[in-house]
């Protein structure tokens, strides 16, 4: 199964930018749901692989942030199912302004 993307209340422009970053970074079977918080305006990605699940918080869609997202997703994809990886407390990983938390 390839990468499956679902967008909730996301403009077509945002959808295109995120689709490219996500599809070019993840390998294997992943389901990704993208939504925007009505409270703080940040973007949230729910990633579900065959073994691991993550929640990722994006503060913006600046080019630098999307590059950080690509790096983070490639790392999570390569680490899928390996367990003992160098994540911070409570399964937390941060790349620049982006935070990923093991779900």
Keywords:
single chain; 103 residues; alpha+beta; Double Stranded RNA Binding Domain; 2 helices; globular
What does this 3D model show about the protein?
- The structure is a single chain.
- This protein has a 6-stranded mixed beta sheet with strand order 1-2-3-4-6-5.
- The longest helix is centred in the C-terminal third of the chain and has 17 residues, at 63-79.
- It has a single domain (4-102), classed as Double Stranded RNA Binding Domain.
- By secondary structure, the chain is α+β, with helices and mostly antiparallel strands.
- The mean pLDDT is 85.
- Helix 1 runs parallel beside helix 2 (63-79).
- It is globular.
- It has helices at residues 12-25, 63-79; strands at residues 4-7, 31-36, 43-48, 53-58, 92-95, 98-102.
- 30% of the residues lie in helices and 30% in strands.
- It is built from 2 helices and 6 strands, in the order βαβββαββ.
- The two termini are 21 Å apart.
Shape: globular
Find the count of extended strands (DSSP E, 2+ residues): 6
What is the string of SSEs from the N terminus onward?
Answer: EHEEEHEE
Estimate nothing, just give the exact number of structural domains: 1
Helix content class: 25-40%
Tell me the span between the first and last alpha carbons: 21 Å
Q: Sketch the major β-sheet.
A: 6 strands, mixed
Order of the strands making up the biggest sheet: 1-2-3-4-6-5
Query: Helix- and strand-based class?
Result: alpha+beta
Rg is 13 Å
Number of helices: 2
Low-confidence stretches: none
Portion of residues in beta strands equals: 25-35%
Mean of all residue-level pLDDT scores: 85
Q: Name the CATH class.
A: Alpha Beta
In CATH terms, what is the fold-level topology? Double Stranded RNA Binding Domain
| CATH homologous superfamily placement | Ribosome hibernation promotion factor-like
- CATH architecture heading: 2-Layer Sandwich
């Amino acid at each position: 199964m390839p990468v499956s993307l679902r967008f909730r209340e996301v403009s077509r422009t945002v959808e295109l930018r995120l689709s490219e970053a996500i599809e070019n970074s993840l390998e294997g079977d992943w389901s990704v749901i993208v939504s925007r918080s009505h409270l703080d305006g940040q973007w949230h990605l729910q990633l579900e692989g065959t073994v691991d699940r993550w929640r990722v918080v994006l503060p913006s869609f600046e080019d630098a942030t999307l590059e950080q997202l690509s790096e983070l997703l490639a790392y999570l994809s390569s680490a899928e199912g390996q367990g003992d990886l160098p994540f911070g407390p409570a399964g937390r990983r941060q790349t620049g302004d982006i935070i990923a938390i093991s779900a």
